[in-house]
Specification:
Elements (H helix, E strand, L loop, with lengths): L1 H13 L23 H12 L3 E4 L2 H16 L7 H12 L7 E3 L8 H11 L11 H7 L11 H6 L3 H31 L9 H5 L4 H13 L4 H5 L11 H4 L1 H23 L7 E2 L5 E2 L7 H29 L22 H17 L21 H31 L8 H11 L12 H12 L6
Antiparallel strand pairs: 1-2, 3-4
Helix pairs in contact: 2-5, 3-4, 3-8, 8-10, 8-13, 8-14, 8-16, 8-17, 10-13, 13-14, 14-15, 14-16, 15-16, 16-18
Length: 462
């Protein structure tokens, strides 16, 4: 960092004109700025770009954004002083977080608006996430705001760290629900007297996608030593299960494969130089497009589609559990008193509503383009839109999985005294430790939220 900073200072001393160091920005990149206005240039850049709107990023997302941006600067391509990274890390250590609105980035010349709100915090302007003015929050934590030198405002603004922060945390949640989908799917299969034959390793090895193999192995382990399965091996006239049960390795596995690809993209991005221009060891300062969010936008759109389809197969299993025409003689809507009681009728409706919203949100943001900055930035990624809607899809999926888990556990009640497979029984016991069997109609909204929260916290990582 010190070496690249020295390059920036030599450029200023020699009077050379270099974009981002002593020029305007975007359409104004041809305007030279004199040395006595360079500090004002950086401060005005930060202030003018801090125009985000909407709900702020969460504390977790804000911390992720700060850490990712510090990592980019620490790579030494940005020409910023080491003090900038030290200050960002001090903000994390002292829990001083700026309020960063979630909307306003097109993910092209970086996440300009969100990162500008971060930079506002560095210079002691704007508001903290707790609602206190940043100057006051920094002072209370014993921190003194910084004055930005040449290029440092731009160094804080150019990059994909808002997309990366929101997308990475949503990915972590999605990877968890991809595994939990096996757990709830296996429980639904037991309640519906399904067969694990379709999970045989030989079938998976004939089509050896890694995710498919992992899902099938997980399902086999969850269903190990099932008394329910043993009870209907002989005399069962059915040949094979419906796709929502039989094809779990293929669908759940494909979701895992998609998320693995997205993880690879996010991991590469987290260690990349995404500033512009970039300062290199030989003193060259080169303008390029590493700030463009296309790699993340495509990946997160892909992840959104995959998680939405995971919700599709979950919803089909919920319907199969409650529908008296196809639920293998379970009571209608999983209640002892169909008619007088509605049982799981309306939780299924809620799942359908969540799925519908996810399908709307799954339309790729990255296929859109609207030029900005007077036509200079004429192709943008819409990556932040992709990240935000992906986050919402993941949240919806957690709730749909919660509904399926509740319904599948209710189905197991009607198979007693037979016991399910070891992993399924463990999941059932964990659920029943805080949600009782449905014996009569009751409001289930709180239980759905509680189970979704438990899924998010790893309670059902079995």
């Amino acid at each position: 960092m010190a070496e690249s900073r020295g390059t920036v200072e030599r450029i200023i001393a020699e009077g050379r004109t270099v974009y981002g160091v002593n020029t305007g920005f975007g359409k104004l990149s041809d305007v030279h700025v004199p040395p006595n206005e360079l500090r004002l240039l950086q401060l005005n850049l930060v202030r003018s770009h801090a125009c985000g709107v909407g709900d702020p990023l969460s504390a977790e997302e804000t911390r992720a954004l700060i850490l990712l941006r510090a990592n980019v600067l620490a790579a030494g391509y940005s020409g910023a002083r080491p003090e900038i990274v030290d200050f960002l890390l001090a903000m994390l250590a002292k829990q001083v977080l700026p309020r960063i609105p979630s909307k306003g980035s097109v993910g092209a010349s970086g996440d300009l608006a969100p990162l500008a709100h971060l930079a506002m915090g560095v210079v002691g302007e704007g508001t903290s996430l707790s609602g206190v003015p940043m100057a006051e929050a920094l002072a209370s934590a014993g921190l003194t705001c910084l004055q930005l030198e040449a290029k440092e405002g731009l160094a804080l603004l150019n990059g994909t760290q808002a997309i990366g922060a929101v997308g990475s945390l949503a990915l972590f949640r999605a990877e968890r629900i991809a595994r939990v989908a096996d757990v709830v799917g296996a429980m639904a299969l037991e309640a519906l007297l399904g067969t694990p034959v379709a999970f045989d390793a030989r079938i998976q090895n004939a089509r050896p996608h890694a995710g498919q193999r992992l899902a099938a192995e997980h399902l086999r382990e969850l269903l190990r030593n099932s008394e329910i399965r043993e009870s209907h091996i002989i005399g069962d006239s059915r040949v094979q299960d419906a796709y929502c049960l039989r094809c779990m390795p293929q669908v759940h596995g494909a979701v895992r494969g998609a998320l693995t690809h997205v993880r690879e993209v996010l991991e590469i991005e987290s260690g990349s130089g995404t500033d512009n221009p970039l300062v290199f060891e030989n003193g060259d300062v080169l303008s390029g497009g590493n700030f463009h969010g296309a790699p993340l936008a495509y990946a997160l759109d892909y992840a959104a589609i995959a998680v939405t389809d995971l919700m599709n197969i979950c919803e089909r299993r919920i319907d199969r559990l409650i529908n008296p025409d196809i639920n293998e003689h379970l009571p209608a809507f999983l209640t002892d008193h169909p008619g007088a009681s509605s049982g799981f009728m309306i939780p299924h409706v809620t799942a359908v509503a969540l799925l519908n919203e996810a399908k709307v949100l799954a339309h790729p943001a990255s296929v859109d383009n609207l030029p900005t900055s007077g036509g200079k930035e004429d192709h943008v990624s819409m990556g932040m839109t992709a990240a935000l809607k992906y986050r919402q899809i993941v949240e919806n999926a957690e709730h749909v999985l919660a509904i399926e888990l509740l319904a599948a556990a209710q189905g197991l009640e009607f198979r007693k005294p037979l016991r399910p497979g070891a992993g399924v029984e463990e999941a059932y016991n964990r659920l029943r430790s805080f949600v009782p069997k449905l014996t009569e109609d009751r409001p289930m909204c709180g239980e759905i939220e509680e189970v979704a929260r438990a899924i998010r916290q790893g309670v059902f990582d079995i």
